[in-house]
Structures are given as C-alpha cells and as structure tokens.
Recover the amino acids of this structure.
C-alpha cells in the first residue's frame, strides 16, 4: 500500500488473507524462502536506481525504466529482509526485464544483455586514430628486436672437470633481458576491471575502491580503454569498453560514483563477462588485461574459472591480475586465478594501499614490448656426454611443459627493462675416457625463443647455445669465481620452493616443522658465497618474517596471504610493491616510478 508510490491504503479481505499466508510462509522457511507478491500494472513510477547504481542526474542513464507498482503491501518481515540486503527488488527486476545493461549517456542506444538476446559485447568504442607519423619517443618499433631482446645460458663455472666416477648436477641459468625503453614510450591498453560488490565490501572498502578507480581513470590516457564489471551473485557491466578520453572521463567518474554493494559472491560469473568483453570487442589495443578484485570466499570459483578459460579457448593475449582484499579472502584461489593467465597476485593487507597495487600492475602493462613469448630449453647430447639431460626445472608443472626432454614455458606479456631468469638442473654424466684437445670444448645445452611484437604480425626468433670448456681428471682445474647471477637465481628459486613447502606444512597445522625447515635453509643462505648480495639479503628477510608468522593465529590472519604472494613473487619474479626485495628486483623502472607517485600523492 505504500510501496513505490502506490497510494492504496485499505486492504480487502482477500489482501489480508494473502498477507497472512505470506507471514506464515516466512515463519516456516526463513528469508531465503520468501515469495515475492504478484505485481499489477496499475500505474508506474520511474526508477533510476538499478543494481546499486545511483545518480543525482535522472538523465544519466540512457532512458528511464518503468517499474510496476505493487498492488499489495509487503509483509513486515519481508520489508526488513529487503532493507537488510538492499537490492532484491532490483535484482528481481534485473531478471524479469531481460537483464538490462546501463551505460553512461554516450550516444549508445539501450541494448538488453546479450546473454538473453543472443547478441555480442561488440559495442566497444573505436580506437584513437593517430595522425601523422608517431614520434620516436612513443614508438618502440623504432628499435630493432635485436636491440630490445637478449638471451643467454650459463653455468656456475665456465670450465668443468670431467668425472669418471659419477654424474654431477649443475644449476643452469637461462636469462631473457629486455631493454628499458625511453621515458614516455608505452603500449595502449584495454583494461577490464572485475569488482566484487558483495555485502562484505560495504563501507570503507567500497569507498576506497571507488577512489582507486577514479585514480586509475586519471592515470590512463586517451589511447587506453576501460570496461568496469561488477559482480555479486549476478554480474553486470557498469560501462562498456570506453576510451579514457577527456569527453568520456566525466561519464566514467559518474558511473564509478554510482557503484554500491549487494549480497552474494560469484567470481566465475564476473570473469565470464570479462572474457566475453575481450573476446567480442570489435577493436583491440596492443595490450589487454583483466583486474579481478575480491575480498571474499567462493569455493566454486577455482574450478569454475579454470573451466571457463578452457571452454572459451580465446586466442587473444591477455593477463589476469588478482587483488585479494584483506584477510578474509582465499589467497590460494586468487593466486591460482592469476596463474591461469600469467598474472600477478597482490595481497592488499591495508585497504588504503590498493592504489599502489593497481599502479604496479598498470606499470607492467603499459611498458609491454613483447607478447606470447615462448622459451624452449634442452640438453644437447654429444660424443663426450651422450646421456646428458635436464633433470629438473624449478617452478614445476605450473611453469613448465616437458616433452622428449625439452622444457617449454611462456610469458604472456613481456615488459621493458626486465630480466626474466629461469633455473634448471643439468645432469652431466660421468666420462671415463681421456679427452683430446679438440674434444675439450662442447655444447651442452641450447635455448630457442620466439616473441611476438606488439601492433605487428612480426615474430622475433633467436637461438643460443651453452658451450663449456672441459679438463681431464688428471689435469689441473683453473681457479674460477662462481657466477653470482647463477647463484643468486638458484637461491631465489630454492627459497620459493622452501617457502611453499613451509606453507603446506602450516596448512596441516605442522607449524613447528615449518619453522625448522625455514630455519635450516636460513642457515644455509647465511653462509653462502652470495650472502652479502642484495637478492640473498632480501630472501633472508622474507624467510625471517615467515618464521615469525608461523603461529596459528598470525598465520591465519596475515601469514598465509603474504606467504602465497611471496612464493609466486620469488619463483616467477613477480613484483610486489610492499616488499622492498621484490619491488627493487622484480619491477621495472616504470612500475617503481608509478608506485612512488601513488605514495607521494597520499602524503
């Protein structure tokens, strides 16, 4: 009688009976079993609050939608349930009205959600047309690929002494380096932000998220495009894929300001929308990525998102960066989703630092100089070492594929000014014969790399070999200094393995065993030949922090989230703006500069 402007005030006997039946149903089944009363199209009122999006300007949405007026008053319990969860009326309208999509008033006519009508998300705004020749400052294609990329293989020592008694195992380092491009050189970006707007994000979290999105819009340029998707138990686009131009910024900011929270968490639904936006867009910028932010738990998402990627099998190159908000989220879930598309997992312990995580990820994206990189490494058999083989590749099945003794991995998006390092263990067999002079130099491994150049169909290809010098057992081995790059990276990946083993022990409540494991490895690092190197000092600090957090309450609160991030950071050289070791060693100058500016802006 007072719902949505209906002025009817005197209920009939039939209406009273209906209300009594509703109350009885609620008392038996609880809020989840409530049945919505039937609507009657007697009169209508305008509604410009949809799925939590509000606007002071009624013309903000492209057209006004009419909501049917209810003939009957909602029972008291149901009114309370509606107020508690804010949006069930709008959600039901969302389902009944064909899953409507709202966009800022940018000249695009209203379209129902393509999920219902069979259409596509092909309403993305056209790319910015550049006039004239690009300047050298912004055109990375002016550099030759051989100037941009270098590759190499090496062992700890350049000269080996053959062993007739047994095989030896040596760490093998493969390095791919990219040149730091000139300041201002960057790739245009298509970014899809998938935001958790479930009830747990209410209050400070959603306000900080909105401020971060505003900062993000300010950060992006007119060549970049952004699409914002919100999800709870449903998912919907807040904006289509729009250029971040001066004309669009006010609309984007107004859309961001209208984001509100509702109940439920379905990450798979939100990611499904993001993939469709990238897959069905008409135009494509050089670099694409998805940002997934959630503070909650979703037990079905790990398999659901994996199945989603396998079903879509998109040929588009894009990464997924996940941002775990606070200590309530599932770090294993968020990390596993990022790994599916070669992205980074960020643990946001303090809500006010979410902008620093966002800009760290953005810095890596806008400095991309290569995509769809493939790396294959294999041992090379010879008369001297007929049974030589790669025994192990650090990172395991998450990082490597193995076929006929060849190890393969890939990098979706390769930023400038980075060094990507991979450690494998090479088993060098025993050699019982005396080597002639012409046999004392031999190739024992080789690597082959392909890199697709952005905004081009060109693919850069390069092969390198590792050749070592050999001396017989009865000959004197020359004095050599161990290669610090090999040792640093060897301890880096070993640290990641030890940290992951400690994590697994802690998950089984074996905290004491985890501490002993970490303590033993800490002692090994402390006495190593590279103990004074910046890399190893940082590893020792991380291990010490982990030992301190190996207490049940501390581990559950923050320890497991930080540890999950550290494992990925050290194994795959992923940047982490809150770890000085990672920030200095695994991020490029663009990321470091942008994070510093984000911090300075808050001072």
């Amino acid at each position: 009688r007072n719902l949505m402007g209906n002025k009817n005030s005197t209920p009939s006997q039939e209406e009273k009976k209906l209300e009594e039946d509703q109350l009885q149903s609620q008392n038996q089944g609880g809020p989840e079993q409530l049945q919505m009363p039937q609507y009657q199209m007697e009169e209508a009122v305008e509604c410009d609050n949809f799925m939590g999006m509000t606007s002071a300007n009624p013309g903000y949405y492209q057209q006004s939608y009419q909501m049917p007026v209810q003939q009957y008053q909602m029972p008291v319990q149901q009114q309370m349930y509606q107020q508690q969860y804010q949006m069930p009326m709008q959600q039901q309208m969302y389902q009944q009205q064909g899953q409507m999509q709202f966009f800022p008033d940018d000249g695009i006519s209203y379209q129902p959600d393509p999920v219902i009508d069979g259409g596509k998300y092909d309403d993305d705004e056209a790319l910015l047309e550049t006039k004239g020749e690009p300047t050298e400052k912004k055109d990375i294609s002016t550099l030759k690929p051989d100037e941009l990329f270098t590759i190499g293989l090496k062992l700890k020592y350049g000269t080996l002494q053959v062993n007739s008694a047994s095989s030896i195992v040596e760490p093998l380092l493969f390095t791919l380096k990219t040149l730091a491009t000139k300041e201002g050189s960057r790739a245009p970006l298509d970014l899809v932000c998938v935001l958790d707007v479930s009830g747990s994000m209410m209050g400070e979290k959603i306000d900080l998220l909105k401020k971060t999105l505003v900062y993000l819009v300010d950060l992006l340029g007119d060549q970049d495009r952004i699409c914002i998707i919100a999800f709870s138990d449903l998912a919907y686009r807040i904006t289509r894929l729009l250029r971040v131009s001066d004309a669009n910024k006010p609309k984007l900011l107004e859309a961001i300001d209208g984001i509100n929270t509702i109940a439920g968490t379905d990450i798979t639904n939100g990611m499904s929308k993001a993939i469709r936006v990238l897959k069905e867009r008409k135009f494509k910028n050089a670099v694409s990525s998805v940002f997934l932010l959630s503070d909650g738990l979703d037990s079905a998402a790990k398999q659901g998102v994996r199945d989603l990627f396998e079903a879509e099998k998109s040929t588009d190159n894009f990464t997924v960066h996940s941002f775990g908000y606070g200590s309530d989220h599932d770090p294993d879930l968020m990390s596993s989703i990022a790994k599916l598309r070669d992205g980074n997992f960020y643990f946001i312990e303090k809500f006010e630092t979410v902008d620093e995580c966002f800009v760290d990820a953005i810095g890596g994206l806008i400095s991309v100089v290569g995509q769809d990189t493939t790396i294959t490494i294999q041992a090379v058999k010879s008369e001297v070492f007929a049974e030589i083989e790669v025994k192990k590749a650090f990172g395991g099945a998450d990082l490597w594929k193995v076929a006929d003794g060849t190890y393969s991995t890939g990098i979706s998006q390769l930023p400038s000014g980075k060094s990507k390092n991979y450690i494998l263990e090479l088993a060098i067999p025993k050699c019982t014969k005396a080597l002639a002079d012409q046999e004392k130099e031999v190739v024992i491994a080789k690597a082959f790399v392909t890199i697709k150049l952005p905004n081009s169909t060109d693919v850069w290809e390069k092969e390198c070999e590792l050749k070592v010098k050999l001396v017989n057992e009865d000959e004197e081995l020359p004095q050599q200094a161990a290669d610090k790059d090999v040792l640093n990276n060897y301890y880096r990946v070993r640290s990641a393995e030890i940290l992951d083993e400690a994590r697994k022990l802690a998950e089984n409540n074996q905290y004491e065993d985890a501490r002993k494991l970490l303590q033993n490895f800490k002692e090994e690092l402390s006495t190593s030949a590279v103990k004074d190197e910046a890399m190893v000092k940082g590893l020792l600090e991380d291990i010490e922090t982990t030992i301190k957090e190996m207490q049940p309450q501390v581990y559950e609160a923050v320890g497991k989230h930080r540890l999950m991030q550290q494992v990925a950071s050290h194994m795959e050289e992923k940047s982490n703006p809150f770890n000085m070791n990672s920030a200095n060693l695994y991020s490029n100058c663009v990321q470091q500069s942008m994070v510093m500016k984000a911090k300075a802006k808050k001072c």
